[in-house]
Specification:
The chain is α/β, with parallel strands linked by helices and 281 residues long. Helix content is 40%, strand content 16%. The chain has one domain: 3-Layer(aba) Sandwich (Glycerol-3-phosphate (1)-acyltransferase), CATH 3.40.1130. A seven-stranded mixed sheet has the order 1-10-6-2-5-3-4, sandwiched between helices.
Length: 281
Amino acid sequence: MSNQEKTTSIPGMSLSERDPEFIQSFMPVWEWLYRYYFRVKTDGWHHIPAEGKVLLVGSHNGGMASPDTTMMMYDWFCRFGTKRLVYGLLHPYAWKVSPELANLAQKAGAITAHPKAASAAFDIGASVLVYPGGQYDMFRPHSQRYEIQLAGRKGFIKLALSKEVPIIPMISVGAHDTLIVLGDCYELVKQLNEWGLPWLYQVDPGVFPIYLGLPWGLSIGPLPNIPLPVQIHTRVCTPIVFERYGKEAASDRNYVNFCYHLVQTQMQQELDRLKIDAGMH
């Protein structure tokens, strides 16, 4: 099997599953959540150019529901319409755990978090949304709710450098109060797995949170949740443009590390400001 055949056989690689009419059908539901459930306040959307492609880099919050992500998607579609192409990178495990839900997410613009999928999206002029911190970010303890955690994953930096696109950070406060993560017992469960207890769906989740939230009350494990109706503040930040671009820059490990720390630092500074502006403590 050729490399191309291997790549195209990976679930979630297709860019053609995205369906603007499907997205439009969800807009009334998202609008209700936006206006009445989460009472979203947002700013900074002028930072996204009316045309062209960008790499949107977010910080995940609020467990698997990640309500700030959905609310930012709603804002994008309100401002730019459902036909302006944007694809969100979704963990490949989603197609293992629930292929049905993953395929529905594809209709809304999700593609698998694979460099070739993201690169192909840029090649057709689309923007791409990535949450580098993934499950480690979305289930970080409640005490760390105002911390940017990108989990040391630098693939998004290499992508921005090689495709020569600016990075636009997207941050929020409030969404990580929609469930209360008390801690993580992953190391204990990992030990049980080594003794013979199988992972659910044969997938190592990397985290095994203990949290308070709906509908379970006290929950253990990365289960889906219903977010509490907490007000969410979102912000689109100033674009980050690097001094060097191209494949040579993307393969320079020291430069990639420098760019990664620059993005993380700027996102943390923006989050600190948004926390103050939103009156959070």
